Amino acid sequence: DTEVTQTPKHLVMGMTNKKSLKCEQHMGHRAMYWYKQKAKKPPELMFVYSYEKLSINESVPSRFSPECPNSSLLNLHLHALQPEDSALYLCASSHRQGPMNTEAFFGQGTRLTVV
Amino acid sequence: GQQLNQSPQSMFIQEGEDVSMNCTSSSIFNTWLWYKQDPGEGPVLLIALYKAGELTSNGRLTAQFGITRKDSFLNISASIPSDVGIYFCAGENTGNQFYFGTGTSLTVIP
């Protein structure tokens, strides 16, 4: 099973709304990631969690707030977003942190539209 | 983030033809990965490469991890219509971060 599940699949929110994106995996992976992807562009790394601790924040604005409640779940809390934040948000997981090789498995993404 | 340059940017080929695309980076990576992404979906892993010089196949797909650890290529043989999509390379660094190439859009003409 290499499944990463993201909910919701689509989300429309106003600039004053607060919403959350959710991601779940049951592969026992200890690293989880959020990526942002604009149309016709590659995914861009936003955050990395390793063993439920935030290890990488790629200079993401504070209106995006990640949370890792346990080893299977990853959330992305959204507040006061701008229309240019509209994008496909992808969650991924990989086996572990450290020097060993690993692969990242991706969810289907949440298509976010900010109006 | 780290920059991975992928070429070509797009390809239009006849069904049955072979396809080749490559990815280069200024940084060394521990792992090279190739993904395919359909519109509105997440990337799906096609092939993973773990050692410099490694050549790996998955059906009609063949990929190689460059000796310098800064490049990789993907070949698709005998293309079929369902090969249509965007192909991304990705490199994994020592911090287990994955960075993506700029993508190759493949169109297969029946």
Give structural attributes.
heterodimer, A: mainly beta, seven-stranded mixed beta sheet, four-stranded antiparallel beta sheet, 0% helix, B: 110 residues, mainly beta, six-stranded mixed beta sheet, five-stranded antiparallel beta sheet
What is the helix tally of chain A?
0
Biggest interface pair, counts: A-B, 34 and 26 residues
List the helices and strands of chain B in order. EEEEEEEEEEE
Structural class by helix and strand composition of chain B: mainly beta
**First CA to last CA of chain B: what distance?**
38 Å
Structure summary, number of beta strands of chain B: 11
Helix proportion range of chain A = under 10%
Strand content of chain A: over 45%
Radius of gyration of chain B, in angstroms, nearest whole number: 13 Å
* Shape summary of chain B: globular
What is the average of the pLDDT values of chain B? Answer: 95
**Helix percentage range of chain B:** under 10%
Give the overall shape of chain A, derived from the CA principal axes.
globular
Unreliably modeled segments of chain B:
none
Strand tally of chain A is 11
Main sheet specs of chain A? 7 strands, mixed
Describe this structure in words.
The complex is a heterodimer of chains A (about 120) and B (about 110). By secondary structure, chain A is mainly beta. In chain A, a hairpin with a 6-residue loop joins strand 4 and strand 5. In chain A, strands 2, 4, 5, 6, 9, 10 and 11 form a seven-stranded mixed β-sheet that branches. Helix content of chain A is about 0%, strand content about 55%. Chain A is globular and about 40 Å long. Chain B is mostly beta strands and about 110 residues long. Chain B has strands at about 5, 10-15, 20-25, 30-35, 45-50, 55-60, 60-65, 70-75, 85-90, 100, 105-110. In chain B, the strands form two sheets. In chain B, strands 2, 4, 5, 9, 10 and 11 form a six-stranded mixed β-sheet that branches. In chain B, strands 1-3-8-7-6 form a five-stranded antiparallel β-sheet, with no helix packed on it. Chain B is globular, with a radius of gyration of 13 Å. The model of chain B has no long low-confidence stretch (mean pLDDT about 95). The interface between A and B is medium-sized, with 34 and 26 residues.
